[in-house]
Amino acid sequence: MNTTVSEKGASFSRIVAGCMNWGEWGANLTIKQSRKLIEDCLSIGITTFDHADIYGDYTTETLFGNAIKGSKSLREKIQLVTKCGIRLVSPNRPDNLIKSYKTTKKYIIESAEQSLKNLQTDHIDMLLIHRPSPLMDPLHIAEAFGELKLSGKVLRFGVSNFTANQFAMLNTFFPLETNQIEVSPLHLDPFIDGTLDQCIMHKIKPMAYSTFSGGKFFSKQPDEKVVRINKVVSELVDKYNVSADQVLTSWLLKHPSGMLPVIGTTKINRIKSVVDSITVKITDQEWFRIWEASTGKEVA
Fold first, then answer.
1. Contact residues for 240 (Cβ-Cβ < 8 A; gap 6+)
2. How does pLDDT run across 143-202, given as a tens digit for each residue?
3. pTM of the model
4. Which of 55, 58, 107, 209 is flagged as catalytic?
5. Which of 41, 120, 162, 169 has its CA 20 to 30 A from that of 22?
């Protein structure tokens, strides 16, 4: 179930386990529960785990690190992705006086080294700049990436939430291997603003987060757009004898960019359901039915 995310050959699982909700921001898993979830994910073919330094008010990386602590064999089976660049106001970071971004060379290197300690590992498989800063200097970012790569502390690099122009600017200074972006039938921007086109052009695979729009598709009081989309999804659920989350995921997987959905749930049955969606193949016309339901009009 693994796939290469770029021509450079980084191999990640087709579905990525998002860890944002594992700790204080969500399920508040114990170390033991986290270890079991990691092992359960591996048992169904998920080997890539997505983090950010800020998750859980700067605590979730440490939770995960404690879960794999002392198990070299377990670490060898997984790929760790993490992000840096957002500064949260938090008791765990008393120097952060306002929510802001920081992408200086010094800050990126220090953030990566802290993530290495938190995750109890000697290398990060991929480091992403979490959000583009209006003050970012691509030369400084490239220098930080270069030093981290040379030292072996980080193997590969990418960005998250970058526009096509921002990606192109940084990619000129240092080769990037993914752009982690929000994509769903409720968030169509990447399909039309050049972001996914750019990934195809550079032969890299994007990572897609918030693929179910924070659960809006399963809300008890959905808005008009969600009702329209769910009507089409429901018909496809019946046709293919699958679940709604599988139809929604298959809609993403059909795109030629080869995006890797990042799944944020901590429920292994729901994670497995998404993994099983890889075998669901909707038609082109069914894909456009969901698109039309989202926009509320037929394509031009």
1. 246, 247, 280, 282
2. 999 999 999 999 999 999 999 999 999 999 999 999 999 999 999 999 999 999 999 999
3. 0.97
4. 55
5. 162
